Amino acid sequence: MVLDFLRHRAAWLVVGAVAGLMLAGWWADKPAQATASAQQSNMIIATGPIDGDGEAVFVLDGVTGEMKGWVMNARAPRFFAMFTHNVLADFDLVGEVKTPPKFTMVTGAHSFQRNVGDFGNCIVYVAEVNSGKLCAYGLPWPRNIRNATTRLTPQAFVPLDKVGFRDVAIAPAE
């Protein structure tokens, strides 16, 4: 009796393992895609997908408003593409600013249609707390850029759109 139970149990284990392997073989492989962001004091860093083969890393200096991004070369372990843009003007923070800006930044995956232009598959979203504004930036990324073997000329981020997430700007404390 116990021997029959063990045989059936072993048989079901084998059937389950075979079915699992067959199902795994038919299941479409989809690589995991992850983005990350971290913020400390006046510096924010984030990553985002640039194309099917790689990602970009972005840094925003909260003091100067300088945002930069880099992409690793697929053929050599070094950065080969660089993007730059100062975000202060996009948030109307040029000139005398009474309240220091408070930025936060994340990335999102997005595939643009061909008629929109050659952009990477990533949008960088920057929000500024005091102004209540959110800006979206794209990266110029021609489809054949991955074939480059040398470091490319730095490109500018492309401001895509700007919206307000708050109806009233925060007034500086007197």
Question: Could you tell me the mean pLDDT?
Answer: 81
| Multimerization status | single chain
Helix content: 10-25%
Reported for the largest beta sheet, the result is: 6 strands, mixed
Low-pLDDT segments, ≥5 res? none
Could you state the order of secondary-structure elements as H and E? HEEEEEEEEEE
**SS content category:** mainly beta
> What gross morphology would you assign?
extended
Number of strands: 10
> Approximately how much beta-strand content do the residues carry?
35-45%
Number of helices: 1
**Mind telling me the C-alpha Rg?**
24 Å
What is the terminal-to-terminal distance?
86 Å
Side by side, the strands of the main sheet go 1-2-3-4-5-9
User: What is the total number of structural domains?
Assistant: 1
Descriptors:
174 residues; mainly beta; six-stranded mixed beta sheet; four-stranded antiparallel beta sheet; 1 helix
Set out the fold topology.
Layout: H1 2-26, E1 37-40, E2 43-51, E3 54-61, E4 66-72, E5 79-86, E6 103-109, E7 122-128, E8 133-138, E9 155-156, E10 158-164
Parallel strand pairs: 5-9
Antiparallel strand pairs: 1-2, 2-3, 3-4, 4-5, 6-7, 7-8, 8-10
Descriptive notes:
This protein is mostly beta strands and 174 residues long. It has one domain. The chain has one helix at residues 2-26; strands spanning 37-40, 43-51, 54-61, 66-72, 79-86, 103-109, 122-128, 133-138, 155-156, 158-164. A six-stranded mixed β-sheet has the order 1-2-3-4-5-9, with no helix packed on it. It has a four-stranded antiparallel β-sheet with strand order 6-7-8-10, with no helix packed on it. It is extended. The N and C termini lie far apart (86 Å). 21% of the residues are buried.
